[in-house]
Design goal:
This protein is α/β, with parallel strands linked by helices and 263 residues long. The protein has 9 helices and 7 strands. Helix 3 crosses helix 4 and helix 4 runs parallel beside helix 5. It binds NADP nicotinamide-adenine-dinucleotide phosphate.
């Protein structure tokens, strides 16, 4: 069965490009009203106008920097002040950086943890109560295939995604009888601006998927009668991710290091 989402509102972080913009398109195509969040105001305003014209939904753009302490709660207040109730939250905004950890810019590392981890927790905590009151949508936290093993030369990124995976699976268990779907979604290498931000294509392990393929897989998982607490995008990514968890940890880390370092 395909869920329509008509009459519900989906808030998508990181909606100015890549997977977030594609989530916005596919939710709008199913009739959901939208709240689009990212820092690049021009892009989310343009996307909101385009989706309103194409799909007849209401789309609100809220330019916002989520890599700040307290940003999640602040965004919840901004959304409430506009009189918008949220039924679906897609915590998608995130970035990575590449190279030896000891050489990483400390400010960038702090922002990475703040955005990829703290904002996901804050936003989930801020919006879950109202989502559970009317459980017709979903909480979708974007993890990664990087969550399944340590990722030397992207040490912080892989660890943030392992956090998102573990956190979301635990919350999915806690809320399993609520009627709300809670899912960590794990893409592999996807053709977005992600690798431009990272500054390297080295971590693009395996074949690239398109944002449309990845988001279609996520929405197909949400359509299932019983959505698992975590879902990996694509068969090849499933095989390599599950395979990584079956090998001895030291060996997995060494293989991962070889793949991540090459550039
Ligand atoms: N592409 C891949 O291969 C891949 C694989 C696995 C997982 N992922 C995950 O998928 C998610 C989406 O990434 P993507 O591939 O679509 O990359 P992307 O095209 O670079 O998109 C990242 C999004 O995050 C937003 N963002 C970055 N910093 C932000 C901040 N401080 N505050 C608010 N928004 C911020 C960006 O918007 P602004 O710059 O306008 O703020 C942008 O919309 C990320 O969580 C990423 O880790 C990606």
């Amino acid at each position: 069965m395909t869920m329509t989402y008509r009459g519900t509102t989906a808030l998508i972080t990181g909606a100015s490009s890549g997977l977030g913009a594609e989530f916005a398109v596919q939710f709008a195509a199913r009739g959901a009203d939208l709240v689009l969040v990212a820092r690049r105001a021009d892009r989310i305003h343009a996307l909101a106008a385009d989706l309103e014209a194409r799909f007849g939904v209401a789309a609100t753009a809220i330019p916002f920097d989520l890599a700040r302490a307290g940003a999640g709660r602040e965004l919840r207040s901004v959304v409430s002040e506009r009189g918008i109730a949220v039924q679906t939250l897609v915590n998608n905004a995130g970035f990575g950086d590449h190279g030896a950890f000891v050489q990483h810019d400390p400010d960038l590392v702090a922002a990475e943890v703040q955005l990829n981890v703290a904002a996901v927790v804050e936003l989930s905590r801020a919006f879950l109560p109202e989502m559970l009151e009317r459980p017709v949508g979903a909480l979708v936290n974007i993890a990664s295939t990087a969550a399944f093993q340590p990722t030397p030369y992207m040490a912080v990124y892989g660890a943030t995604k392992a956090f998102v995976l573990s956190f979301t699976e635990a919350v999915a268990y806690e809320t399993r009888s609520s009627g709300l779907t809670v899912m960590a979604f794990c893409p592999g290498a996807t053709r977005t601006e992600f690798f431009e931000v990272v500054g390297s294509k080295a971590p693009a392990v395996g074949r690239y998927q398109s944002p449309r393929q990845v988001v279609s897989a996520a929405l197909a998982a949400l359509d299932r009668r019983r959505t698992p607490g975590s879902v990996i995008s694509g068969f090849a990514n499933k095989v390599t991710s599950v395979g990584a968890t079956l090998m001895p940890r030291g060996l997995t880390t060494a293989v991962s290091a070889r793949l991540m370092k090459s550039d």
